[in-house]
Each structure stands twice: as structure tokens, then as C-alpha cells.
């Protein structure tokens, strides 16, 4: 598949980023109740071909392949060579023959025939789709989905709401830099501005019967997700630091002081935090347009 410029917000070939995504994927899937919680973790009838867009290290694909061993194939596509290689190695080790991983850029036409997939999943595309790419990408996904097939998008407006002042500053810088770089739809950089837009984006791309399902991940001290999210922040903020400095959101000295304070405050016994996610489900009309 011909490649276009990589628009992933962070370094897609960074091993630390891959490790972060592995942890994050596992945490979120468990926290929201499985790979398809809105469907009771059951596949609709006549579902044989699935696609995961921006699959990263392949967690969702491999979880689906394990849960539904009779599937013909579940395909993951991602621009990162290191992540696709990792996913392929894991699929081989786990003997998941129906899990297929392809290195490719979703900003280019997908190398699949019309109406090929029964269900398409995508999580956190805000991290690699610039604003003007959303509708074209959703239309291309619609092309490769069969009539009556489904799309499932999970997005966020921020990376958490917490009681830590220092952590909230880091999260504020993150929202500002995302907005300045052209991701999300926030008018002021206070958040990503994604969840209010999902219905409109799907409608503009020709999807019908849109349903919304909220999820909450508790990252407070003492919860199952607390340490994993602490590790996520520890890696993500360091990777975002050059972007903060480039866009003059902070100084090196201020960042380092705030970074250490945020990690310390998150380890306090009274730390409280929640992460809100929204999944939008939609179907492709039975009649071709």
C-alpha cells in the first residue's frame, strides 16, 4: 500500500510508545467490559471479516481472535512497522491464524474490495487523523464495509479528570498541543473536542443508525487501573515534552518540575481520577448510494 506522510501525533516507531499502547489497550478493554461491550461481547450474525483501523500493537485484534476462534479473519492495519512486526510475532506465538496485520496508511485508499468487512473498529483516531481527514477516512471505511455492516469508534475528549493540580496542568498542555497541531475539533484547546463530533462525522460520511455508549475508567488510587495509568502518563508526557516546548506552552524547567510533581501527586492515597470515553456505533445503509 502506498504510503503518505505519517500524521501520528507521537513517534509511531518508538518502543516506549509501543509499550505504552500495549498497557493502555489492555487496561481499556478490561475497564469498559470487553472487546464489544455494546453488543454484550457477541458478534452479530454473519460476521466473518473484521478490521481494526490504527491497530497499534494489535491488542484488540488478538483479543477478538481469541474470543471468536471461528472467525475467518480479523485484520489490523497500522502505519508503524515496529508495532505491526510485534503484532505479527504475537499472533504467531499465540497461534491466532485468523489475525492478520498489515502495515499501511489509512489516509490512502484501503487495499480491500468494496463491502468486504462486516465490522470495523477504531480507537483513538484523534491521535493520528487531522481534522480534515476524518470524513474522507470514514467514507473509505464505509466503502470497504458491507451493506448492513457496522463501524465502532471509541474516542475521548481528554486523558482524564483528576484531583491533582500538577497532573491537570500536564493534561491541559496535552489538549492545547493537540489543538495547535490540527487534531480534534476543540475551538479553544481546552479539550480534544471529539465526542460531540462523532455523530456528525459519521452522518457526513454516510453512516446511519448512530448510537452512543459512554464508558468510565476509574484511575483513582487503589483501583485496578491506577498504576497502569500512572505508567501511561509517565511515558506519554515525556514523549509530548518536545511538542510542548516547540509550541511554547512551557519551559524545560517548568515541565520537569511539574512532571515530577504530577507523578508524585498521583501516588497519594487520596488521589481521585476518572477517564471518560465514548463509543459511537453506526451501520452502513443496505441500499448503496
UniProtKB/TrEMBL annotation:
Pfam families named among the record's database cross-references: Methyltransf_25
Record-linked Gene3D superfamilies: Vaccinia Virus protein VP39
Domain Methyltransferase residues, every copy: 51-149
UniProt GO MF annotations: methyltransferase activity
Source domain of life: Bacteria
Name of the protein in its database record: Methyltransferase domain-containing protein
Organism for this UniProt entry: Reticulibacter mediterranei
Amino acid at each position: 500500500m502506498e504510503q503518505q506522510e505519517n500524521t501520528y501525533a507521537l513517534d509511531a516507531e518508538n518502543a516506549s510508545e509501543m509499550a505504552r499502547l500495549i498497557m493502555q489497550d489492555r487496561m481499556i478493554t478490561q475497564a469498559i467490559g470487553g472487546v464489544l461491550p455494546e453488543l454484550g461481547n457477541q458478534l452479530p450474525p454473519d460476521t466473518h471479516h473484521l478490521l481494526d483501523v490504527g491497530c497499534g500493537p494489535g491488542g484488540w485484534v488478538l483479543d477478538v481472535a481469541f474470543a471468536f476462534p471461528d472467525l475467518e479473519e480479523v485484520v489490523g492495519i497500522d502505519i508503524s512497522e515496529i508495532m505491526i512486526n510485534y503484532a505479527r510475532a504475537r499472533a504467531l506465538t499465540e497461534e491466532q491464524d485468523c489475525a492478520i496485520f498489515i502495515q499501511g496508511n489509512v489516509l490512502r485508499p484501503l487495499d480491500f474490495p468494496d463491502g468486504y468487512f462486516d465490522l470495523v473498529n477504531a480507537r483513538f483516531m484523534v491521535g493520528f487523523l487531522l481534522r480534515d481527514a476524518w470524513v474522507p477516512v470514514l467514507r473509505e471505511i464505509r466503502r470497504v464495509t458491507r451493506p448492513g455492516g457496522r463501524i465502532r469508534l471509541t474516542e475521548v475528549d481528554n486523558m482524564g479528570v483528576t484531583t491533582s493540580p500538577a497532573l491537570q496542568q500536564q493534561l491541559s498542555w496535552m489538549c492545547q498541543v493537540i489543538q495547535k497541531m490540527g487534531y480534534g475539533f476543540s475551538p479553544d484547546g481546552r479539550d480534544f473536542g471529539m465526542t460531540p463530533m462523532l455523530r456528525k462525522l459519521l452522518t457526513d460520511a454516510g453512516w446511519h443508525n448512530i448510537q452512543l455508549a459512554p464508558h468510565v475508567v476509574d484511575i483513582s488510587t487503589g483501583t485496578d487501573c491506577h498504576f497502569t495509568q500512572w505508567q501511561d502518563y509517565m511515558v506519554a508526557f515525556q514523549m509530548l515534552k518536545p511538542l510542548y516546548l516547540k509550541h511554547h506552552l512551557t519551559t524545560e524547567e517548568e515541565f520537569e518540575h511539574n512532571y515530577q510533581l504530577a507523578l508524585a501527586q498521583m501516588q497519594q492515597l487520596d488521589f481521585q481520577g476518572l477517564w471518560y470515553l465514548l463509543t459511537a456505533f453506526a451501520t452502513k445503509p443496505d441500499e448503496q448510494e
